[in-house]
Structures are given as structure tokens and as C-alpha cells.
Amino acid sequence: MSLRAKLLILSLFLALIPLGLAGRNLIRITQDELKSAANDDLLATAQRVAGDIDAFYQSAWLAPITLVKASVESPNLGVNEKLSLMTEAVSNVEDFVAMQISVQGISRPLLITQDTFSQTLRQQTDLDPIQLLQLDPGRIENAGGMDSMILGEPVFVEGAETWLLPIMLPLSMETFGRPAALSAQINLSHLKARIDEVRSNRSGSITLVDEKGARLFDTDTVAVAEQAIVKTATSLLAEGNRSNGVLHSVNPDGESMLGAYAFPNSFNWAIIVEKPLSEAYLAVSDMVSQMVIWIAVGIFIAFIGAIWLSVSLTKPIRKLMTAAKEVASGNLSKRTEGSNRKDEIGQLSGAFNQMVDDLNLYIDKLTETTKAKERADAELMLAQEIQQSFLPKKFPQFEELDVFGTCESAREVGGDYFDVFMIGEKQFGMVIGDVSGKGIPAALFMAVSRTLFRILATKEKSPSEVLVEFNDRLVEMDQGTNMFITMFFGVFNLETRILTYSTAGHNMPYISGPRGRENTFQMLPTMETMVAGMMEGMTMGLEHIHLRRDNDTLVLYTDGMTEAINQEGEEYGEERLAKQLEKYSGLTAKEMVQRLVKDVKAYQKGMPQFDDMTLFIMKLKSLSNGNGKLQVAEDVQTESKG
Length: 642
What we know:
The chain is of the alpha+beta class. The protein has helices spanning 3-73, 79-92, 115-124, 129-133, 138-142, 189-200, 228-239, 277-280, 282-312, 314-328, 344-390, 439-456, 463-477, 559-562, 574-583, 589-603; strands spanning 96-103, 110-113, 150-151, 155-157, 162-175, 178-187, 205-210, 215-216, 245-250, 256-262, 269-276, 401-408, 416-423, 427-435, 485-493, 498-504, 510-512, 521-523, 542-546, 553-557, 613-620, 637-641. It is flat and about 105 Å long.
């Protein structure tokens, strides 16, 4: 077979195969895009309906009934005035068709109904409006001890074609010495009309279901609880998870459906929006017809072009192949001939030569970029070493105390720090800080803060005075960075065993041994304070605590310890930290720090470190009663200074 015949056959195959594969991929991509667009549209519709329901709840129902509740509970209003307000609410709030006050143990509640709705019931049904709208007082007793609003289940009123929703609110005042509640019957017609309006403006279906999978606002008795999307939504409601989502499922008729679900914040309801998959793929059939036409055109063009290609293509392609092999072997000075041709071969030759030039340029730039990155990495390592030099490497050795701390940054450098130092001969100072943000800006702000604090921390000033002046100096130095730092500063007197401390918005430390229990930990009482560096003229509180018992332990930490997140998105938490402190309370300060940091890292295994982690522990050593040493008391006492 001649080369020309081979090229002809090859061209036909090359035309058919890529067009077929491209068409198939294009159809698949288009289907995916159409499916994605349909999912987005369905989810947006479900979220819009959920938002409408929440808007009705907040503005049309909750606000008026809360206002009525406040009026009923007001001691400044008489009975007639309260009844008048309830009557006005029922008359002027269109969705309120009845309101009542129920007293526990009294069978007849105080009921006020909307005249218009009552007349409608009498005209369209044989129902007694009083019996229909009155909420059974027994429900108040069954709700026993309710402390917030209770939403009932929607009820359909046959004949009036109306859905009613009961709402109950506990009253803080007692009537006749008994608990009472304010309740209302809400006409859901306006909410249903809004949902019907959304349903009429789009294809597909919109279904509301409760947590049991029963339909709402729909008298159709067809069961939907066993459908996959309804099961998914109701299981999320049962778990307390209101994450919106989409789901591809098959309905009972065997039809593939696209669906989305969303949840209003105010109700245990789910909004299900579905659309047949076939409707989303209507555009694909047109695409298939167009693809068939283009494949036929491609075959014809390939047949004609193959004859010409067989004559003019072979030689220049071989030259290009030879040049490509040399470039692949490392010869980046190789150029190919034929770039002066006015056809595709000339363009290909020119593009090949341009590729070689670009490749040379890219290698040069990559070399420079690599060098620049190495310099940046070296500078970051130096910055890390400098920042680590700010932190204590060796800790003071006391007969009375055992102290140790550590700081681990989330990045190369960070914004946490702690420091320990002597103030005079008998006072031991300890400070821990956490700068807003991370990385180099936080590290620079931390360095400035540490230097400034070291200058200000003297024995002539109390911790609160130091923090006040520290805050004012930071504000003066601010150049629009809007950065701040939280700090805890404590001074421990080695003779009196009194810890004097103040805080600027920092987490309160843990202390052991409250109320005589040696191995328990709790936080020091919260102080009213403000972060440093945001506003000048702030005052900082001052507290004293007398540590008297052997092994009393003070734990300073930053939120990087407690806010570490595991793979389930759960925080390590202050409660877990307190339990681990109790677990390791018998160890030395250094061992406690190492074990706690190891626990936090194990907790967040598989997740990036959330924040800088800093931990410092001061632990009192055992002292005897003799030889002039302090006697151990029975408790830890706390004093407060204004």
C-alpha cells in the first residue's frame, strides 16, 4: 500500500476517532454542566423557600407575639389594657387568627379570635371557630417546664382549605399562683401562597416535609417518607445537622431525579426541590445532531486533505521529528527549517523554534526563582531562630517553684510568646501574649510588644499599671496596622506566696486545688478587660491570689491549645484541657507541658496546626513547717482589688 493510501486511511481514522471521542466527552461535560447548573438552581430554590419561611417566622409571627407577650407580662398595664392589646394584635396582624392565655390547671383559657376568620369558618364549614381555634390547655401541662417558644404541628382545616400553626410562649408571670402561657393560632395561607408562587414559576416539584417525613401544605396522601432524598433530609434533622445539599436519586416510578434540600432555621422542616434528570439534559439531543453533521464534514475534509498531505507533509515532519529528538536529548540550541513557509508546517516550525526559545527563558527564570526561594527560606529560618531567641531557653531554679513553658508556632514564625523574669530578689514575673493574626506581621508585632513589655515591667509598678502603660504605648506606635495583643501578666512573691495579676483580654489561667481538692483545676475568675493596642486610656483590673498548699499549680496558655480542631471539626476545648491537667497533676511542670502539647497534637492529627500553641506552668514545691519556711494552709484564697 502506497504512502498516499496510508495517509488517506490514517486521515479518515484521525478524523473519526478524535471527533467521536471529543463528541462523547463534550456530551459528558455538557451533561455534567447541565446537572451542576440544575443542582445549583434546585439548591437556590430550596434555600429561597427556607429563607421565606424564616422571614415569615421572624417578622410576621415572632415579632408580634413577642411584643404581645411583653405587654401581657408588664406590671404597668391593667387587665383591660392587656386584653385590648391582644385584640388589636389579632385584628391587625393578618396571620394571627386567635390568641389565648392558658393557666395550668384551669380548663377554660382566655381566647380572642379574629372576626374575619371566624366568619369565614362559619360560612364555609360547620366547624365552631371557638372549638377549632382554642388550644387545648392540656398541651401547656404536657409541655411542662417549657422555657422558650414551642411550635406545634401544622393542621389542615378541611372546607376552609386553610393550614393553621399553633405557637406557645411561657409567661414569666404567674396567674393565680400557677404557670401560664400565651399561645396563638397562625394562618399559614400567606406562607403557602408564597411557596405556591415559587412552585408555579419553575419546573419540577417543591415539597415540604416535617422531621417524620410527612408532607406539609399538601393534602395529597402519597407517602414520601421512604424516598431517598426525604430520608436523607429527615436523618439530618434528627442529628441536628441543617447542612443544605443536593442528591441524585430514583423516584418510585423508576425515573432519575435531581433533588436539593434545605432547612429553615425556625422549624424542624425540610424543603425538597426535585426535577427529572431528563429535563436537565434536553440540550444534549441537539448537540448530538450537530455532532453527527460535523463528523460527516470532518470525514470529507480529511479525505481531501489526505491527498495533499501525502505530498507535502512527510519531509518537513521528519525534520521536525529529528529536531525534537535533539531538543529532548538536551540540545536547546537546535532550530528547525521551514519557518518561512506560509502554511501550517511553517507555523509549526516557527512554534517549535519559539518553544525552544521559551524553554531556554523558562529554565533561566526557574533558576532565578529557585535561588530567590532559597534566600527567602533562609531568611525565614533566620527569623525563626531570632524569634525563638526571644523565648526563655533556661528557666529559673527555685526552691519554692517548679516552672516550665514552651511555644510552638503554626508557621515558621508566629505571634505567641511567653516570658519569665525576676523583679527584684523575691518577685517572679510571668507573662504570656497572643498577637492577632499569624506569620511575619504577627511575629514583628510580638517582637515590639516583648521589648516594650520588658522595659515597662518593674517592681515599682503593679501588673495592672504595667498593662495600662503598655496598652497606651502600643496605641501611640500604631501606624494603621489594626493589630492587637492579648496578655496575662502575673507577679509571684516568693516569700508571701501571693500572686498579683492582671490581664488584657487574655484567656484566664487554670489553677489547681479549689475548695481543698488538690487534683482539680478551674479558671481564675473572669476580669473585665480589653485587648492591648486598640484603644488608649483603658483601665485594667488587678487581682490577688494566695497560693498556700504544696503542689498548687498555675497554668497559662493561648487559645491555640484549646481551639485545636480534629478531623471532625471539633475543638479540643477548655473542659478537655482541665481534665488532662488533672490527669497529669502529679508530674513536674516540664512533664506536664510536654504531655499536654503531645495530647493536643495527637488530637489534631491529620489537620494543619490551627494556631500558635503556647503553654506555661508554675508549680509550687513541697515546703516543711520548720527551718523558717512557710506553713502550708488548708485552702487557696482569692482576694480582689478594685
